[in-house]
Amino acid sequence: MTKVILKLDVHDEKSKQKAMSTVSSLSGVNSISLDMKEKKLTVTGDVDPVGLVRKLRKTCHTVIVSVGPEKPDPPKKEEPKKEDPKKAEEKKKEEQLAELVKALKAQQNMYPPICYRSIEEDPNACVIC
């Protein structure tokens, strides 16, 4: 996953929409964000930056600012939550029910397929087809 930051000469809403639709049509794009104040387009995903600029230069002037790996979000520390006794009982019941379903599935009988046999009354009769 790469993060590509591009500087675009986008002046109005129509050119912004053209740029966004051009980028979104490329394969491998995960997310797109456009900052109109700084006129910067940020694209994340498995995208070739040169091909991206080549497509965008057909609609507006484009310059590559930076190309690099996508920074992962910092992991949030989650505090262990205390479980209610009611929820613990519900989980136990669900586990018991799941075990029961597994046991019953093993006991289901598979019936053999039904075969039909066609018998003609007079096999020597003349039939015009």
Description:
With 129 residues, the chain is of the alpha+beta class. β2 and β3 form a beta hairpin. The longest helix has 22 residues. The radius of gyration is 32 Å and the shape is flat. The termini are far apart. The mean pLDDT is 84.
Characteristic key phrases:
alpha+beta, lipoprotein, flat, 4 strands, 129 residues, HIPP, Alpha-Beta Plaits, four-stranded antiparallel beta sheet, 3 helices, single chain, metal ion binding
Percent helix, as a range, is 25-40%
Q: State the CATH class of the domain at 2-69.
A: Alpha Beta
Average pLDDT for all residues: 84
Order of helices and strands: EHEEHEH
Show unreliable segments: none
- The CATH architecture of the domain at 2-69 can be named as 2-Layer Sandwich
Question: What composes the largest sheet?
Answer: 4 strands, antiparallel
Helical segment tally? 3
Straight-line distance between termini: 67 Å
State the CATH topology of the domain at 2-69. Answer: Alpha-Beta Plaits
% residues in beta strands? 15-25%
Number of DSSP E strands? 4
The backbone outline, from C-alpha atoms, is: flat
The oligomerization state is single chain
Structural class assignment: alpha+beta
Rg of Cα set: 32 Å
Family: Belongs to the HIPP family.
Domain HMA: 1-68
GO molecular function: metal ion binding
Keywords: Lipoprotein, Metal-binding, Methylation, Prenylation
